[in-house]
Amino acid sequence: MDLATGLLHTAVLAGGVPALAALGEVLAERVGVINLGVEGLMALGALSAVVAVVATSNPYLGLLAALGVGLALGLVFAFVTVQIRANQVLCGLALTLLGTGLAAALGKPYSGTPVPALFGPVPLPYLSRIPVLGPAFFAQNILVYVIYLVLPVGLHYLLFRTRHGLHLRAVGENPAAADAAGIPVQRLRFCYVAVGAALAAVAGAYLTLCFVPSWSEGVVGGRGWIAVALVIFAGYRPINAVAGALLFGTTTALGFLGQARNWPVAAPVLSMLPYLATLLLLIVPVAASPAMRRRMAAPAALGLAYFRDER
Amino acid sequence: MTYRLQRFPTPLATSAFAARTLAVVLALLTAGAALALTGSSPLSLAREVVTDTFGSAFALEDLALLVSPLILTGLSVSVALRIGAWNIGAEGQFNAGSLAAAGIGLFVPGPPFVILSLMLAAGIGGGVLWMAAPALARAYAGVSEIITTLLLNFVAGLLVYWLATGPWLAPGGRAIGTTARIVVDIPELWDEVHWGLPAAILLCVTLSALLRFTRWGYEIRVCGSNPQAARYAGMPVRRHLITVMLLSGGIAGVAGMVEVAGTVHHLQGGISNNFGYLGIMVAVLARRSTLGVLASALFMAVLLNSGIILSTRGVDVSVVLAVTGLVLLYTAIGDEIAHYRIVRGAALSARAAEAAPKEYPPNELAE
User: Fold this and answer.
1) Region A206-217 average pLDDT
2) Secondary structure of chain B in the HEC alphabet?
């Protein structure tokens, strides 16, 4: 593999982690609930996937385990933020602390254990033989195709081309109006917050089953927060979110490349690249153009609980 | 006569306090139940924790050393909350402050008092610098400070790790990965406990008084609870936002400086020890009271110390982080439930409901 192909290959692989989590977060934030627990959900998802695969040697069961854990925690988070209407920022931070702490404590026996079965590459016929781009984009594992093609296109269609998607967005923009129009505000919020959390946990599973094939404390390393940042950068649009994740993946790959080629930059400094790049992505576009700020604005009711009697 | 549950825009102080206490107790009970499920005996562990935390002068000193950074990071988060900003980056500002202070302490020669003052200035400067980009981005472009401050935590952590294990590594210190010992230190007050603790308490009391009794403090509180009203009243909302956020960063930087100059005496990776994240917890538990930071910092120090003690009994240290999350979750639930009161009388008619005061969307913790 030549330099450019290797770089792109790693970028696509690395970007898949925040891409999946960001897609879930797009759903939750589109219905007006900000979930800052992504980091904790990813940690628990990553661990449960490793535990399941070590026990069964079947990566699909690992994925399923993470999905189950994420869905269960997502239902709890949805109950607390949507039904009880507790402060979303606090609950999200709580979920992050709880998830990271719990995963670190429970994961001790699995620390460093290699995952016995991973998602292997599935080269697509013809496409994978395109020079440079082929091996980078079309000779990846099966989840990569789902994350970069099936999910974003599907979610984009759902959000912007269906009546259900219109309802969903209405709930995040103006829940009172949506409620008056007969849209079940609380039910939609509940469902999509739970689904978003499940996707975050699956992102953790992707991390340990496809990218770093073992569990260790701190393996998530802020990728959950990067996903939350990518959602803002993407203007709450699924396709943009995946594109942003690919950019993030590229900076990660650059860091790896630098270490592998002994660039005269220290490894910890190279590891800063993804965080600094995400920060720039977050600040520069909105700071540069007010029009961009309007177009990429958050759903109007983001972070606010809905009380019917206050209508 | 019928009774019904009604939600009020602001909770009663008593029910808010009760909800918070209940949240803490429930979280500890949940953690105890979880420990019991894994086969340890929570009661005997609790007894050991209590005796090991309060049983000896030596143990109390350890506790006091944990309290001062928690007061400062808690104060940092709490001050930012007053103006409606979430400083999730106290961890990074702590690291930046400790790094800047260590830089002065390691490489600038001079009489101890001068060096200590310079280290303090550098600590403040480091924290302020680390908060500058998030503060300006929030004030001028509306970029959420939650994410920007948090992302910078990772950068600061890596920077400290790199300097401590790379360019600033002590000769012959490769195995432990720290810088040389910083000769200048904060004078001791009582054995291990240094003047950092009274200084932190003093800073907390001063800020509390400033926020409560001065015009500046009043404007900050108004800007936090209702920025629109503040703007109409002619208050410089943006300027206040920037200064308070920078102040918040500076306080977290001081925490880092105190840790380096008073407790650890060199720079090493992981020096921030989650103090920044626990500071969020301290500030949230203290609710609207800046003085309350003192009490909640003490509580968090006990919790943190328990974790250290439990880790010698085969319980993982990360459990503390999980319990902190649990306390935070229950507190958030309790806060919301405290808004409800049981009132006598029939359900409100539609017109009365319309006349009922509305809740303002901005952060109620700011008030």
Assistant:
1) 92
2) CCEEEEECCCCCHHHHHHHHHHHHHHHHHHHHHHHHHCCCCHHHHHHHHHHHHHCCHHHHHHHHHHHHHHHHHHHHHHHHHHCCCCCCCHHHHHHHHHHHHHHHHHHCCCCHHHHHHHHHHHHHHHHHHHHHHHHHHHHHHCCCHHHHHHHHHHHHHHHHHHHHHCCCECCCCCCCCEECCCCCCCCEEECCEECHHHHHHHHHHHHHHHHHHCHHHHHHHHHHHCHHHHHHCCCCHHHHHHHHHHHHHHHHHHHHHHHHHHHHCCCECCCCCCHHHHHHHHHHHHCCCCCHHHHHHHHHHHHHHHHHHHHCCCCCCHHHHHHHHHHHHHHHHHHHHCCEEEEECCCCCHHHHHHCCCCCCCCHHHC
Choose from A97, A270, A278 for mutation: most chain B CBs within 10 A.
A97
- Best residue in A33, A73, A90 to probe B by mutation, most B CBs within 10 Å? A90
Q: Is A262 a residue whose pLDDT tops 60?
A: yes
| Predicted structure pTM score | 0.91
Nearest of B155, B136, B138, B150 to residue B96 by alpha carbon: B155
Tens digit of each residue's pLDDT (9 = 90 or more) over B280-329: 999 998 887 888 999 999 999 998 888 888 888 777 888 888 998 999 99
Pairwise CB contact (< 8 Å): A98 & B336? no
Residues A93 and A34: beta-carbon distance below 8 Å: no
Where chain B has pLDDT below 70, the residues are 1, 172-175, 346-367
Cβ separation B155–A275 shorter than 8 A: yes
- Cβ contacts from A onto B, under 8 A: 142
CA of B234 to nearest chain A CA: how many angstroms apart? 24
pLDDT tens string B255-276: 999 999 988 888 988 888 889 9
* Structural domains of chain B ordered from first start: 62-313 (1.10.3470)
Query: For residue B306, which residues of chain A lie inside 8 Å, CB to CB?
Result: none
Residue A135 tokens read as 């091996």
Which residues on A lie below 8 Å from B140 (Cβ)?
A: 287
Q: Is there a contact between A293 and B333 if contact means CB atoms under 8 Å apart?
A: no
The residue of chain B with its CA nearest to that of A265 is B162
CA distance B202 to chain A (A): 28
pLDDT of residue B187: 82
Name the residue facing A268 among B153, B162, B315 (closest C-beta).
B162
